[in-house]
Write a structure and sequence with these properties.
The chain crosses the membrane at residues 312-336, 357-383, 403-421. By secondary structure, the chain is α+β, with helices and mostly antiparallel strands. The chain is built from 16 helices and twelve strands. The longest helix has 35 residues, at 353-387.
Length: 438
Amino acid sequence: MFGYYFKLGVKSLRRNPALTALMVLTLAVGVAASMSTLTILHMMSGNPIPHKSDRLLVPVLDVGPKEGYTPGSPPDDVQATYPDVKNLLSAPVGVRRTAMYGINLAVEPARTDLPAFQQQGLAPTHDFFAMFEVPFKYGQAWTEAEDKAGADVVVLSTDLAERLFGKTNPVGKQVRMSGYSYQVVGVADHWKPLPRYYHIISGNGEYGDEEAFFLPFSTAIRHEMGHAGSMSCNVRNAKPGFAGRLEGDCTWLQFWFETASPGDRVDVQSYLDSYVKEQHRLGRMERNQPAKLYNVMEWLEERKVVGSDEKLSVWLAFGFLALCLVNTIGLLLAKFSVRAPEVGIRRALGASRREIFSQFLVETAVVGLVGGTLGLLLSYGALALMGLSTPSMKNLAHMDLEMLALTFVLSIAAAVVAGLLPTWRACQVTPALQLKSQ
């Protein structure tokens, strides 16, 4: 019977075409408003690396001065100092460890037709690529030996490699950036996790473009490359110049641990607690506050990557959808009320209330299906307009298969919910009264 009712529902779309079009448009607008905002929130709050997010850990050490500090207050900055990074890189816990900071360099192409241009990159240690599963199109990451030696090597992004060398394998070639030449050892394939959880404090931002290049951390330090981002220094032991930044308690670096299993987090926490006590005895970490440890999702929550404004906008959009449903209920009541004689005749011929209810409910589902199709098109249009606002929004404003399926489910469910009252009213028609009126 469902197939028969579905055919009746399709045919019913031609009855009162103006009323039907108004219902479909009302439902489509409500679905588009809610799904476009929900898609943005979904992209912002998704788990960027779900299969190992509980094994990637960020340590936060409080190196601020004791003067003026209120016990229990959060650290002045959640980034790490260079002395702590050097110590943590040799820590006996975790299967991988990496430190990084953002850099902004001038790329100096060998081609005469291409002028110099600025690019945002990252300076991590070699474990970065395996830890965050960066895919490679050509070559590979630099080795641990090159990391220790501070070798002048570079991994390019696919976009930058094609801009400099075309669609060829550039491994082994030289790239000159900010006065130094670097040998290309690899080309990273397109890799843009959203949000950019591995380096969200500075650089390209939480939803910015992919890194244009990667230089070894030790190489960037050897060349005294400035960082792209924020920095906080303990003024009591601050020293001038780049060397002073390395020696003092200036927080400007990002650090990550990777453990073999989620249970190994306890070992990392124990090590950090011991490390804080040791540094306190040496005269550092005057506040003597316990180290904090965050996995990927905890880190995104702590950094408030998804703000209350985004969540509020979703609630407002669904409130607008509810308003559209109220209007759809009124339109369905009007549509079904004029069919009371038809219902009376069908009841008189033996149709049960259940059959009438099923028929009309399937008809509302057909309206929801058509409204969902139109709503999907409107959602794509709304996301395209949102993507024009900022570069970061462009990276977020696209719909995946999950949201695509949810759009149709939401539209059909919304139409069915809106049709419950009109359908129930239609089932209450008294056959005798309708036959007498004919």
